[in-house]
Amino acid sequence: MTSSLRRDDPPTDVVAPKAAPSTRPRPRIRPVLLTHLAAALLALLGVVALTFLVGPIEQLRIAKVGYLMLAIAGLQLLVGASGQISLGHGAFMFIGAYATALTVLHAPMVPLAAIMVLTVVVGCLAGIVVGAATARLHGPYLAGATLALAVGLPALALYFSDILGGSNGLLFKMRGAPPELAGLVTDNQWKAWVIWFTVLVALVVLATLSRGRLGRRLRAIRDDEAAAAMAGIPVGRTKVTAFVISAGCGSLAGACEAYLLGTATPSSFSLALSLSLLAALVLGGLGSLWGAFWGALALVYLELAGKELADLLGLSSSVADNVPLVFFGTLLIVIVMAWPMGIHGALSRLSGVVRRR
């Protein structure tokens, strides 16, 4: 009687061994994130030390550099990384400032950290709406749509004056330094620390995203949108994501400004602010968060230099108000003509020349 099993068939009573449990280690935090966290910690320590060396007015300027840097960094992700030109970034700062003011006035017991998170959420929701509406727009059409946003949104404070305070805005009081630090730390110092801590946390997130998959997708869309779509990148969704993150950064920057000044007024978020942020980004350098830092420094200290120059020349108030703009614009033209990649590009080229020597 012939057996039905062939010689090469496995025996039916043999059970296949179970796969051994995986011994692969759990993924750790990426070294890039650790590097960014270490750099942020060093920067925060530097800011804390610097506030002890300068006076109260200079401490306010240091804090202003911080929240302007955050706003420009968010714009950098949108313009420098994805190539979407936005002229309405000041409108998202308006949203963050007024969200902070309304929360403090109507819910004063909400902690500051929760207020900051709330402003980011509100800004991101606004970014979803605006980003979805403008996802198919390009070039001047996108710039025009965001320009309308920058002009129209602050006007809501005049239309809903009962809620938003009209042209005078909203005035509120926020807590300064803790009582335990009375006599050791001033309110201006404490606010500068809080603002820079918030800014550096947001910058760590931005830097990590820029080095990851999202950053690569944004750069691919910026270089060639059609090729990115053929490569399987969801162009529309990625562009909306960039708009949402940028709006969240702008809203958080507006919240930091409101926290520093204790007021939110529509005149602080005019079209001039949006244009200044974009000009500062070009001046500082597209494509790097360092460009946001140089741009914020230029916005704060070139304006101060222009005012001091006007006072030195004894110019009338009508002329003196325009001197900082002329000063900033002239420097912007010179920098862009000499170094198209801005201040950061010039410094990178200079450091490369020094290394080769």
Automatic annotation (TrEMBL):
Region (Disordered): 1-24
Keywords from the named record: Cell membrane, Membrane, Transmembrane, Transmembrane helix
Entries under InterPro entries matching the protein: ABC_transp_permease, LivM-like
Leader sequence residues: none
Membrane-crossing residue ranges in chain numbering: 32-53, 65-83, 113-134, 141-160, 190-209, 277-302, 322-347
Membrane disposition: Multi-pass membrane protein
One Gene Ontology term, aspect cellular component: plasma membrane
A matching Pfam family: BPD_transp_2
Predominant location category: membrane
Name the record gives this protein: ABC transporter permease
Organism: Thermobifida fusca TM51
Taxonomic classification: Bacteria, Bacillati, Actinomycetota, Actinomycetes, Streptosporangiales
